[in-house]
Design a protein that fits this description.
With 115 residues, the chain is mostly beta strands. The protein contains 2 helices and 6 strands, in the order E-E-E-E-H-E-E-H. It has one domain: OB fold (Dihydrolipoamide Acetyltransferase, E2P), CATH 2.40.50.140. The chain starts with 5 loop residues before the first strand and ends with a helix.
Length: 115
């Protein structure tokens, strides 16, 4: 059996970028900062992971969630592979979201910006 399921909570590092593919499918990309627990009393650096989501979920995310907002993401792990300018193969892991839950209500500053 193969299982590819990841669930994380974190805060958006920037506003999501909403775009549309050639066939009109909406997709949003964003990065999450995921805090790690302290080790031996010392704070650990956050982990940053890129996330992509599609369709109505992408449009809702771009409309209602911005930088600093906390979300929970249920996703599958994926990897992009490409050739760099130097001809070497590059890879980058990302999450492809199946479900995103908004964990905080909009802050007053967020509501004022959206109006």
């Amino acid at each position: 059996m193969n299982i590819n399921s990841v669930t994380v909570t974190g805060r958006l590092t920037a506003d999501p970028e909403l775009r549309y593919s050639g066939d009109g499918t909406a997709f949003a990309t964003f990065s999450l900062a995921i805090n790690r627990p302290p080790r031996n009393g010392d704070d650990q650096p956050a982990v940053f992971i890129d996330v992509v989501t599609f369709g109505a979920q992408a449009e809702a995310l771009a409309t209602h969630v911005g930088k600093g907002r906390k979300v929970a993401v249920q996703a599958r792990l994926d990897m992009d592979r490409w050739s760099g300018d130097d001809g070497r193969t590059r890879t980058k892991h990302k999450l492809v979201a199946n479900d995103i839950e908004f964990l905080e209500a909009a802050r007053p500053a967020d509501e004022a910006t959206a109006a």
